[in-house]
């Protein structure tokens, strides 16, 4: 919102310098970009992300299949740093399990089961691809929309941040140039600038 403070420089003032007017124009352009371009960028990114994520969700819903797995034997607790168990609220255990693939083939391997204390013969659900390889739960439509909205908000905030950063950099360069001109003017005035008649 500091961009708005530069707009006061447009009022009629005999002391208004060209750099003050330039700062006001920079502030106005930044304000327009933040209030118009940033939301449009966010909306565009959100719509593109929504379309892409919904297509991915539809593909996953057709290619990820739920199957019932059977515990052969427990392998111990899931490690704490396991990315599959990090977000889970229920206890997860590593087990050796058998499961059928959608294509009819049988599979066996170590998997994470949402069982607190697994025993041989216990059943639990898994998601697999058509060949029986373990995969993740398919992305649902609501989650895809939520991710798209977050992407849109992020893009809008990033655009606004970049505009504000550019505005600050431009104003900083203008101020540096103004100070450099002041120093040159002081140098031209000489060491006796304030003493009438001195050095004449």
Largest sheet properties = 4 strands, antiparallel
How much of the sequence lies in strands comes to: 15-25%
Strand order of the main beta sheet, please?
3-2-1-4
How much helix is in the residues?
40-55%
Radius of gyration: 32 Å
Number of H- or I-type helical stretches: 4
Helix/sheet category? alpha+beta
Amino-to-carboxy terminus distance: 51 Å
What ranges have pLDDT less than 50 throughout 5 or more consecutive residues?
A: 81-89
Shape: elongated
Give an overview in words:
It comes from Streptomyces graminearus. This is Transmembrane protein. Keywords: Membrane, Transmembrane, Transmembrane helix. InterPro entries: MT1774/Rv1733c-like. The protein has 4 helices and 4 strands, in the order H-H-E-H-E-E-E-H. It has 200 residues and is an alpha+beta fold. Strands 3-2-1-4 form a 4-stranded antiparallel beta sheet. The radius of gyration is 32 Å and the shape is elongated. About 4% of the residues have low confidence.
How do you describe this structure in short?
This protein has 4 helices and 4 strands, in the order H-H-E-H-E-E-E-H. By secondary structure, the protein is an alpha+beta fold.
